[in-house]
Amino acid sequence: xxxxxxxxxxxxxxxxxxxxxxxxxxxxxxxxxxxxxxxxxxxxxxxxxxxxxxxxxxxxxxxxxxxxxxxxxxxxxxxxxxxxxxxxxxxxxxxxxxxxxxxxxxxxxxxxxxxxxxxxxxxxxxxxxxxxxxxxxxxxxxxxxxxxxxxxxxxxxxxxxxxxxxxxxxxxxxxxxxxxxxxxxxxxxxxxx
Length: 193
What we know:
By secondary structure, the chain is mostly helical. The protein has two domains: 1-31; 32-187. It is built from seven helices and no strands. The chain has helices at residues 2-6, 8-26, 33-66, 75-107, 111-115, 122-149, 157-187. It is flat.
């Protein structure tokens, strides 16, 4: 059991095996393939969103505030190893979240109404637009500036400092946007009228 828990890949595979067992028992009896496919897509959307926003919160609540407490000789462990790995999952989590969300909205028939805030789909539409803005911030502003700040792209010290600040400020903007985005996404599942 210890070897299972000390290896991330084994632990994740085990989690998926348990999920498949659970799905197998859910699928017993009458089975609606379309409903199952929609559920699977929604699950992928949620798990991607957890990865994306979870790492956003890690950066903003843990890494950024604590960098000042790390001795300079230890900072390369963060900037050369941890941050690039976290940014990989962060970027691709944003892609998976937005793509699965748009597909879900299309398959459920409300993509256009949500994107145009019509026919009662404005709450999910607001959430979708906020997520799209956050996604664009990740790919157009945060990642290009993080590459400079982390030394993935070589720049002078002044440019590196400016890039780090810009990436941090846009990361904070995404943190701000994530809160109403999550409200919009969850409130859309309920009716208050």
